[in-house]
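tool=predict chain=A
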Amino acid sequence: MKIYKKNDKIIFEIPSWQDASDYFGKKDGEIPNIIGVVCNDDYGNEELGFHQLIDMTYKGKEPQIDGLLVRYNGNKENFKKLCKKLNIEYFEYPICGICKKTVYGCHTINKDGKPICFECKEKLKKIEEK
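tool=predict ok
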């Protein structure tokens, strides 16, 4: 990554691709370096931004999404268009149909086909048992 100032702007240059390495550290191709992500914060507000990907090739897995690099201030449709224009993959985390929190890992589906986080599933289970 290269960071510099030009006139009154700070410029972050991030390579589009990063090396993928096998278990022995030998280069085994390339993966994207950046991904566009949509999720909800703890208050149910939509967050849009560019995140870095972590190479997991050495474990035989797909890349993992890492922390937020740059937040996008705009709407989801314009963000999707920007990702497409920049040739950056786009990922939208599922949102729990009950608590409206982002589901970052495994989840289940309710009878209406909506994602449900395991915390809400357990709460529903306890209610149904009564």
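Residues 2-93 form one domain. The beta strands are 2-6, 9-13, 17-21, 27-32, 34-40, 46-54, 64-71, 90-92, 108-109, 115-116.
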